[in-house]
Amino acid sequence: MLLKYGTNKISFDEIRPGIIFTAVHKTVLFLLVLTANLHTTQAAPTATNSVADGRVLILENSTMPLPTAKATLIVGPLTRTNGVYAGDFRVKVFPYFFKSDWGRLAITVPDAALAAADQGKAVAVTGTSTSTKNGTVRHIEITATPTDRERGTISLWFMVGAQKMIFTPAYHFTNNIVTTANALMPALAASLR
What we know:
- By secondary structure, this protein is of the alpha+beta class.
- It has 2 domains: 2-49; 56-191, Lipocalin (Beta Barrel).
- Helices cover 29% and strands 43% of the residues.
- The chain has helices at residues 17-49, 111-118, 177-191, and strands spanning 2-5, 8-11, 56-59, 62-65, 70-75, 79-81, 84-94, 101-108, 123-131, 137-146, 151-160, 163-167, 170-174.
- Strands 3, 4, 5, 6, 7, 8, 9, 10, 11, 12 and 13 form an 11-stranded antiparallel beta sheet that branches.
- A hairpin with a 6-residue loop joins strand 7 (84-94) and strand 8.
- The longest helix has 33 residues, at 17-49.
């Protein structure tokens, strides 16, 4: 009885265990590599849906008039972890500095909202601000209107007593958190004084 292995014909009596092991080993290795490539190919769209992972969200300073004062919202770099952009904020009230507030901002932005914004669609998200000054937690409503994949404007509002605070800062994304944090944190730190 003759078997064909590659281009060689060998008799059944001449088959050595090493030949069979090598053929089986190569087949198993090929199937493992093929399976790994299929999983990598299938996982790629999920990774691209998380469009802002690794990107830092920067909100420009924004001011709103009050009856006898003005309030300025200053937000430090916001980084995304588990679908939440988080960072420091400060609301300065001039001339009533004692009414100013500061703390942490957390904005929930699911992958689907990021993907929609990347396509130029306006998206509505929510978040919270937690005051370091007095521990107050406020609900925040946000609508982002992109001009392109990297920038746009947002309308952000929350209540302070009976006063509706509305800010409309521009936003943009950057990929370098170290440079961004070094550039913006001194300005934020100065505003905290």
